[in-house]
Amino acid sequence: MLEAFLIKLSLAAAVFFGVLNLAGLHTWIERKQSAIMQDRIGANRASIFGLRLFGLFHPLADVLKLFTKEDFIPPGGNRVLHTLAPFLSAFFALVVFAAIPIGNTLTLGGWVIELQVASLDIGLLYILAMLSMGVYGVVLAGYASNNHYAFLGGMRAASQMLSYEITMGISLIGLIMWSGTLDLQAMVRAQGQYLWGWLPLWGAVVQPVALIVFLAAALAETKRIPFDMPEGESEIVGYFVEYSGMKFGLFFMTDFIETVLVACLATTFFFGGWQVPYLFPDGFRFPWGGAIPMAPLAVTLAGIGAFTAKVVGFCWLFMTVRWTLPRFRYDQLMRLGWQYLFPISLANVVATGLALRLLS
Amino acid sequence: MEMATEYQTRDLLLNVGPAHPAMHGIIRIVLQLDGETVKGADVEIGYLHRGFEKMCEQGGYNHAIPYTDRLNYVSPLINNVGYCLAIEKLMGITVPERGQYLRVLMSEISRITDHLTCIGASAMELGAFTVFLYMIKAREYLWELVEQVTGARLTISYCRVGGVKADLPAGFEERARLALRQTREVLAECDTLLTRNRIFVDRMKGTGRISAADALAYGITGPFLRSTGVNFDVRKQTPYLVYDRLSFEVPLGQHGDNLDRYFCRMEEMAQSMRIIEQCLAQIPGGPIQVDEHGRPIAAAEMVDAAKMGRIPEIAGTQPVTDPTLEGSNKIFHQRVNAPEKRALLPPKDDTYGNIEGLMNHFKLVMYGHGIRPPQGEVYQAVEGANGELGFYVVSDGTDKPYRVRCRPPCLPMMAALPMLLAGDMMADVVPTFGSINMIGGELDR
Predict the structure, then answer these.
(1) CA nearest A264: which of A228, A193, A312?
(2) Distance between CA atoms of B142 and A57, rounded to whole angstroms?
(3) Predicted local distance difference test score (pLDDT) of residue B315
(4) In degrees, to the nearest 5, what angle opens at C-alpha A226 toward C-alphas A223 and A228?
(5) Are A5 and A33 in contact (CB under 8 A)?
(6) Pairing of strands B12-16, B163-164
(7) Which DSSP category does B425 fall into?
(8) pLDDT at position A350, please?
C-alpha cells in the first residue's frame, strides 16, 4: 500500500515538475518566439557568470524580481479574497493535470504503473469541472480589487469562460459517444486503432469539426489573444491590475499553465495522447511491411516523448496564434461563441449520433 | 420605502487615463458606461501644454523652428515646412526649386512615418503587436533616410526661413528607392495581416463613425475627413511648394468609420511613395548649374566671389566647414536656400571668408536683430499627416513675432471624440482614439 502511495506521489511530483517547468519555460518561449516573429532578438540580458544561454535565465530573474516586490493590496479591497484569488486560479489549473494520461502503463520492478496521476472513470467530467472552477480566481480578483478596470475584467472573464465552457463540453460529446468512455486513458487507447489498416483513428480523424470547435473554445479558456478580453492590455489592463509581486506572477503563470493544459487536452482528445503511429507494445509494425521490435520500456518512453512533443507542438501553435491575431470585441466574442461555435458543436453531436447508428 | 424590491442600476463612471497604457499619458477620458456600452464620454486635454504659441513670441522668428519639431513629433518635418512657409509668405521669399522639392520629399517621408505609427499603434491597441513592430521596422527605414539628410531623427529642425538646412547626401536616391521598396514589402505584409483578417476588419468596421456633415461642422481635416468622403486635401485645394506639379490621388472613404480611416491612411502611404519617387526623378539642380547656363549672377554673389578671389592661394577652393551635412558649404547652400540676406544665415564660407558674410551673420544672430518681416499677418496651411496644419503669424515689424497661432489638426478631432465614442463599446474606445492619431505635442501645443 505504501509503495503504491509512493509511486503515485512520485508520479504526481513528476507531472507537477514537468508542467510547472514547461509553464515557466513558456515565458521564455513567448519572448523568443515573439522576437523571432517580429524580427527582434528578444530577451537575452540575464546572465549568470556571463553565461546567457539565449535568455534562458530570464524566467529565473523574473521570479526573483516578483518575489522581492512589494505585495500591494489596494485600500478598500477585500484582503482575504484578494489573496485567495491567484491561488484559486493556479490551483484549479494545476489539478486538472491529474486526469491526463502522459503515457501507457509502465512496468517497473513488478509494479504495473498507469502513467496517469488519478485514474478517474469520469476523467473528462472532472477536467471540465475543474476548468469551470478556474473562473472563480479571475472573478474574485476582479471583485476584490476595488478597481473598476479589474471589475470589468472579472465580469468579462466570467461571461467569456462560462460561454465557451459549454461549447467546449459539447464539442467533446461526439468523442465520448465514439469512444464510449469518460476515462481519458481509455480514450487514448481507443485512438490506437487504424482505419483501413494505415490511418491512425485519432480524435482529429474521427471528429475534425469537434477539433476546430474545441481549439477555439479552449483558446478562449486560456484568456490569451485573440480571446484576451479579461486582460485586454490596452483597454482595461486586466482583472489583475491591482496585483503585484508573486500574486501577479501566479496569474501570469496560470495563463501559461492553462496554455499547457489546453495543449495537453487537445493532444489527449484529438491527437492520440501518447500514441505513436504504428507503434505497438512490441515495437513498430508498419502497414507497408517491415517491423522494428522494441523493448516495452522503450515503447513506454517513446509514448511519453510523443505526448510531450505533441504538447510542445500545440504550445507553439497557440503562441503563433497569440502573436498573429488581434483581439475580439466582447459582443463579437459572444456572437462567435453562441451563434457559430455552439450550434456547430450541437450539430456535430447529432451528426456523430447518426453516423454511429448507421455504421453499427 | 417600497423601492427596496426594485433593482437600481446606475452607470459606471470609468476614469480612463492619463495613467492608462493607451492614453499616451496625456489624455483623460471619463467614460460613462452602461455595462460595456459607452453612453457618454468627457475628454480632458492639456496635459502636455507647453505654451508653444507664447514661446514663439519670446524669441526671434528662427527660434520657433525647433519648437515646431515638437508639435507633431511623429512627422516633425511637416511642421517645420508649415512654419517656414508662413514666414516666407510674410516676407515674400521664394525658396529655390531644389529646396522646394526637398521640402516636399521630406514632408512625404514624414507623412508615411506618421501613418505607419498611427496604423501600427491602432493594430497594437487591438492586440496585434506583431504588426506594430513590423510597421515600426518600416518607419525605421524611413527615419534612417531622414537622419542621413537632417542629421537627426526626431528633433530635426531641418527647414530655415528661405530654404532648408542641408542638401541631399551623395547616393541618397538609391538609398531612398531601397527604403521605399522595403517599406512596400512591409506594407504588403501588414496588409495581409490586417485587411485580410476578419477579426481586425470586424473590430474596425462601423466603430467610431462620423458623418461628413458632422466632420465638416467640427472642422476636421485630413484622412479623418476624407474617410467620410469629403474631398479636401490642402495639397490639392491650395497647392503649396511644388505639389501642383506632382501627380497623386487623394483616397476617399465612404463611411467615416475606423476601417475607412485605416484604408485612407494605407492608400495615402502608397500615394506618398509615388510623390517621393516623382520628386527623386524631377528634383532639379541648384542655382550653380543655372548660372552656368548664362543667368546673370546676383551682385551680392559677385562681390563675394571677388572677395574670395582676392587671395590667390585660396582662390577657387571650397573650405569644408561642415563634416556631416552638405548644407553649410556655399555650393550646397546656394542650391537649397534662397539668396535672401534678410532672412538666411550666409553659408559658412562667407561667414568666415568675407566681411559681408560675417556682418550678415551677426545681423541675424545678435540679440535685437534677426529676421524682421514687414508688418502684416499671414495664414499658411500645409497638409499635415493628420490634416490641415496651419500657422497664422502676425508681425509688428520687430524681430519677434507678435503672435503665432498654430491650428493643430488634432484638436477638432478630439472635440468630436465624445460623439464618436458614444454608443460604441468600451473596447472600441481605444481603437477609435488610436484612429484619431492624437499627438499630444500638437494637440496641447
Answers:
(1) A312
(2) 35
(3) 54
(4) 35
(5) no
(6) unpaired
(7) B
(8) 92
Name the residue in chain B with its Cα closest to that of A335: B202
ω into residue A74 within 30 of 0, thus cis? Answer: no
Q: Which residues of B touch A156 (CB under 8 A)?
A: 36
Cβ neighbours, 10 Å, residue A356: 13
Contact B427 A326 (CB under 8 A): no
CB contact under 8 A, B199 and A236: no
Strands (DSSP E) along B191-339, which ranges? none
Q: How far apart are CA B82 and CA B380, in angstroms?
A: 7
- The torsion angle over the Cα atoms of residues B180, B182, B184 and B189, rounded to 10 degrees, is -160
Name residue, grid cell 496588409: B191
Q: pLDDT tens-digit profile of B260-307?
A: 999 999 999 999 999 998 888 888 765 433 333 444 445 455 555 555
**Measured distance CA(A8)–CA(A4) in Å, rounded:** 6
The answer to whether the CB atoms of A327 and B203 lie below 8 A apart is yes
**Residue numbers in B near A329 (CB within 8 A):** 202-203, 425, 427-428
Write the ipTM: 0.83
Q: Any idea which residue has 552638405 for its cell?
A: B326
| CA separation, residue A220 to residues A142, A161, A175, A176, B426 (Å) | 18, 7, 20, 22, 19
Are B426 and A330 an interchain contact pair (Cβ–Cβ within 8 Å)? yes
Concatenate the DSSP letters of all residues of A13-26 into one string. Answer: HHHHHHHHHHHHHH
Cell of B2: 417600497
Residue B38 to residue B43: CA distance in whole angstroms: 13
Whole-angstrom CA distances from A158 to A30, A133, A259 are 26, 11, 18
Question: Which parts of chain B sit beneath pLDDT 50?
Answer: 1, 287-297, 299, 323
Residue B370 sits at φ, ψ, to 5 deg, of 100, -170
Determine the residue of chain B that is closest to A38 in CA distance. B130
Who contacts B139 (Cβ-Cβ below 8 Å, separation ≥6)?
B112, B113, B116, B117, B120
Closest CA to A318 of A181, A237, A192, A222: A222
d(CA A22, CA A27): 9
Domains of chain B, CATH where assigned: 9-44 (no CATH), 52-285+371-444 (1.10.645.10)
